[in-house]
Structure formats: structure tokens, C-alpha cells
Amino acid sequence: MEKKELRKLIRQRKAEYSAEEKAEMSARICRQVLADPHWVKAKTVFLYHALPDEVDTAMLADAAMHEGKTVLLPVIDGDDLRLKIHTGTTRTGSYSIQEPVGDEFTCYNKITLAIVPGMAFDKKGNRLGRGRGFYDRTLPKLTAAYKIGLCFPFQFLESVPHEAYDIKMDAVIIS
Predict the structure, then answer these.
(1) Which whole number is the average pLDDT over 148-159?
(2) What is the rounded CA–CA span in Å between residue 148 and residue 77?
(3) What's the CA gap between 38 and 106, in Å, rounded?
(4) Would you state the pLDDT for residue 94?
(5) Each residue of 48-76: pLDDT tens digit?
(6) Which among 76, 69, 65 is positioned nearest to 99, based on CA atoms?
(7) Distance (Å, rounded) from C-alpha 134 to C-alpha 74?
(8) 113-130 burial by CB neighbour count: b if 16+ within 10 A, else e?
(9) Which of 133, 123, 118, 136 lies closest to 48 in space, CA to CA?
């Protein structure tokens, strides 16, 4: 299946679940992340602020801040993501995504854990994004980060289309 067709199929599948069902699955996924050894030892964590149809990571952001971890969230800047320190305050940015208002963070080699969204993931760690390439341009900079993709069960597939330059996830967590 081509990327465009697969994205359409996943959007249809997401629409079949209520906000409450997605919230329950998100909580189960986040509990798995919180128990992961990579989470426990991470000092600087790159998260994302979820869109309504993505695995909600608010529980992870709250836990990380409570644990004294540095939390980074993306800010869309043209065709790129800039990373900013999350202090608990956000504003509505591009694509109606909540973005942090903290200082910019450019020490990519200090990021030890990256929690990554996607439209679909497969058993080999391949990720299909939304098609704009924001994470495709950012993930190669995270050379020291363990990368975990988060997805609902219907987003985890046998195989997703990928390119040689795509960065694989080290793990994918599903509910």
C-alpha cells in the first residue's frame, strides 16, 4: 500500500474510536513507557504534544517534570522542528498544536530518550509520519537518544513503506 493510501486508512481507523477509548489506550501506553528502563534513566526527554487522534503524552510530560527530567517539546518553524524546554506553559502554534514557550534547546546529543508519534509503525521499527517530514529531518540529529514510537494497536502493522534515509525506532509501544 502506498503511503498516501495508508495514511487515509489509518485516519479512518482512528475515527472508529471514541475520545474516551483513545484516552484509555493512551493511559495504558504511557504506563508502559513509565516502566521502561530507558525512561527511568533518561535525564532529557523529547516528547510531543498530541493531536486529538494521537497517543496522548500529557501523563508523560507531567511525570517527567515531577521526576526532574528536562522535557523538550517541538515547535514548528517553517519546514523544521525546533525543540524548546517545556516549563508547563504552552501556546497554540502551527496546526493548532500546543507548543512550549520555554527556551530553545539545541544540545541534541544530550537527549537520551525520544518519544515519537506516527501514523503507523511496523515490527522492524519503521515509522510512517503524516507526510510533512518534520520528524524525518529532526530524528537524525538525536544521535544519543533511544527512540520509542507510540501507537494504538490499529496503527501497528506488519510493514509500512519506508525509505533508506528513514530513522527506525528502537522500540514501539502499543496498548
Answers:
(1) 97
(2) 23
(3) 21
(4) 82
(5) 999 999 999 999 999 999 999 999 999 99
(6) 76
(7) 10
(8) bbbbbbbbbbeebbbbbb
(9) 118
Domain 3-174 matching CATH 3.40.50.10420: the answer reads: yes
Domain ranges of the chain: 3-174
Taking each helix axis as running N to C, give the angle between helix 19-35 and helix 58-66, from 0 to 180 degrees, rounded to the nearest 10. Answer: 30
What is each CA distance from 113 to 12, 23, 39, 70, 162, in whole angstroms? 30, 23, 7, 11, 22
What one-letter code names the amino acid at 129? G
Grid look-up 515547535 returns 75
- The residue with cell 510530560 is 61
Q: Which of 119, 120, 122 shows the shortest CA–CA distance to 158?
A: 122
The per-residue DSSP string of 102-155 comes to S-EE--GGG--EEEE--SEEETTS-EE--SS-HHHHHGGG-TT-EEEEEE-GGG
Mean pLDDT of the chain: 95
